[in-house]
Amino acid sequence: MKPTCGSGPQIAEGPVRYLTVRRDGRTLGFVRAAVDDSAAGYVPRTAAGEAAFDAGAAWLTALREARRNGLTPLAALHGIRRPGRPEAGVIAQDAPAEASSLDALEELSGRY
Question: Buried-most residue among 63, 73, 84, 109 (CB within 10 A)?
Answer without folding.
Answer: 73
